[in-house]
Amino acid sequence: MARRRKRAEHDNHERWLISYADFVTLLFAFFVVMYAISSVNEGKYKTFSDSLNVAFSQQPDAVSIAIVPNQEEQRLKVLVDKRTARLVEQQRKVQEQMKEVHDSLRQMMAPQIAQGQIGIYQTKRGVVVDISASTLFKEGEAAVQPGAQGVLQQLARVLSQKDQSVEVEGHTDDVPIKNAQFPSNWELSSGRASSMVKTLISYGVPESRLVAVGMAANQPVVPNDTPEHRAQNRRVSITLVSPEFDRLNPPAPPPPP
Predict the structure, then answer these.
(1) Which terminus in the chain has less CB density within 10 A, N or C?
(2) Measuring CA to CA, which residue among 138, 152, 131 is closest to residue 233?
(3) For the stretch 49-61, what's the b/e string if a residue is b when 16 or more beta carbons lie within 10 angstroms of its beta carbon?
(4) Phi and psi (nearest 5°) for 177?
(5) Which CATH class is domain 109-245?
(6) Domain residue extents for the chain
(7) How many angstroms separate the CA atoms of 120 and 238, rounded?
(8) d(CA 215, CA 106)
(9) pLDDT digits (tens, 9 = 90+) for 13-54
(10) Pick from 180, 161, 151: which is nearest to 101 by CA?
């Protein structure tokens, strides 16, 4: 008997449609899940998150606050407002105290101010007393002259009654100096500041509250272009530092709420 011929098998070129359909179905399911996740209620999610934080931090007293986040926000706002009000009140009292010192010094040293020997003004850092170098020292020297002792004694009486730090800065003009005692204006300005500090200590200002700084010619009040302007720049600045800028005695933090 003759053998039957086998039917020729044809390749199915459309089988990829099955895989493609599965892929599209999975992709659709993926986007449905993503949409569902994006629609979570933010308020409930935050409450859930706060509750977990409380549970893991073992703070049972805060459970009620975590459950009602609006109450927590209100409580924090009240605390912040109270703290801000206390800070503003502290700053107001400090400004009033510094103004009293400023007015008292101007009244006490009115004659010297009128003669141009002393300048007194108030800045953010505190009350500044500028004393002309010619009132305090001989040219090129750092020893305080006897004639200036009376003014410094009056100034020390006021400073010794306060609790703030006192910064004493020596300033020169831009004319170079070079001798056996002072090789440059740095040494001259530092020496004059140190002499002023020693004098204030001798009149009762606590040593722990004093700072001496030599500035040389780096902070002129006017350009060094005339003899008169150079004379203005040769000075000693004594600053009663406001508590917020006090490096030696930083202000105490406000009491906790």
Answers:
(1) N
(2) 131
(3) ebeeebeeeeeee
(4) -130, 140
(5) alpha beta
(6) 42-96, 109-245
(7) 10
(8) 25
(9) 667 777 778 888 888 888 777 777 665 556 666 666 666 566
(10) 161
- 3-class secondary-structure state, position 211: strand
Strands of the 166-171 sheet, one edge to the other: 118-123, 126-132, 235-241, 166-171, 210-216
Tokens of 172: 């020169």
Inform me whether the pLDDT recorded for 59 exceeds 60.
no
Q: Which amino acid, residue 15?
A: R
87 is written with which tokens?
A: 């800070």
- At 88, list the tokens: 């503003």
Give residue for tokens 């109270």: 82
Answer whether 238's CB lies under 8 Å from 119's CB: no
Q: Residue 32 corresponds to which tokens in the numbers above?
A: 């449905």
